[in-house]
Amino acid sequence: MELMKEFWKMAKSDVKRIVLPEGEEDRTILASAMIKKEGLADLILLGNIEKIKNKAKNLGVDINGIKIVDPQTSESKQLYANGFYELRKSKGVTLEKAEKTIEDPMYFGTMMVKLGDADGLVSGAVHTTGDLLRPGLQIIKTAPGISTVSSFFIMLVPNCEYGDNGMFIFSDCAVNPNPTAEQLAAIAISTAETAKNLCNMDPKVAMLSFSTKGSAANELVDKVSKATEIAKELRPDLQIDGELQLDAALVKKVADQKAPGSTVAGQANVLIFPDLQAGNIGYKLVQRLANAEAIGPVCQGFAKPINDLSRGCSAEDIVNVVAVTAVQAQKNV
Ligand code: ACO
């Protein structure tokens, strides 16, 4: 996996501090030993210190030197509780509630990132996507100028003539169930930035639909064409076009027929799906039927990087997501 090797190399070049809230979990402990051995990140594991050390011993891995913090007993607990209270008191959170909430490693870890005690967070081997996103949205919040947090997959399709030799960015496949036109525009802009800054691509962004340039009339199509207009107006410097059917986005011959003159159609390498059903189904179709490698979902739009894992992930998957998160922290994307 050439691209992942590149992320590993970058992660090692400027080591970042990544907090893993699921520190007591076996795959996380196995991954931690690998990350330490490879020098990919300075890790902070959250959980009961004795329990984590015993598990590592039983698993036969060396985690000596990795920082372990127990949210229940940490001396930072009150500081983080106060910080969380300040951030959420307008939403009805009391100090007492904040003190209780901060014992949850997901909230504790997110406050660590917020207050600069860690550069990024990776979780999700046990917790759901929502469990990761909620503290992120409440505490880290969006980066300046970004209104909507979303996610992307880097898709590497073997033997593929489309995109950048089979490399694509797909979004949003994991966060926003039914984005408005404004949110869809924001997702397109964030993904173009990700393609440029994280993947060194020259983004050509297709706003996908079941219609190409007015070939069908429907409010679902209207949402995508409105999102395209908004994105183009906000960022005239980016190459964004829509609404486009998938074949018009990828295949030059179809593009010449359906969207003549478009600088994106026929050569798109960034695909923006109209909603989460399309995005999630779309990436899995390509992953399963075309044997594509799917790197993600990686979050974009947070002020600091926090990333999710699949609950079916392997220790190797955790290592890779930590490497990507470390690179996001380096590049501030
Ligand atoms: N971007 C920016 N802010 C957001 C977003 C967003 N995408 N979504 C919610 N917010 C804000 C809300 O406005 C709210 O702000 P406030 O409390 O400061 O006023 C705050 O974040 C928290 O919002 P909640 O209402 O508590 O959360 P909500 O119930 O809207 O849930 C969530 C947000 C968790 C992202 C939800 O939309 C969700 O569960 N999405 C789908 C996740 C999922 O299951 N994905 C499938 C995974 S499959 C796979 O990963 C491949």
From TrEMBL:
One of its GO terms (molecular function) is phosphate acetyltransferase activity. Its EC number is 2.3.1.8. Keywords: Acyltransferase, Transferase. It catalyses: acetyl-CoA + phosphate = acetyl phosphate + CoA. Residues 3-326 form the Phosphate acetyl/butaryl transferase domain. It holds the Pfam family PTA_PTB. Pathway: Metabolic intermediate biosynthesis; acetyl-CoA biosynthesis; acetyl-CoA from acetate: step 2/2. Belongs to the phosphate acetyltransferase and butyryltransferase family. This is Phosphate acetyltransferase. It comes from Clostridium rhizosphaerae. The gene is pta.
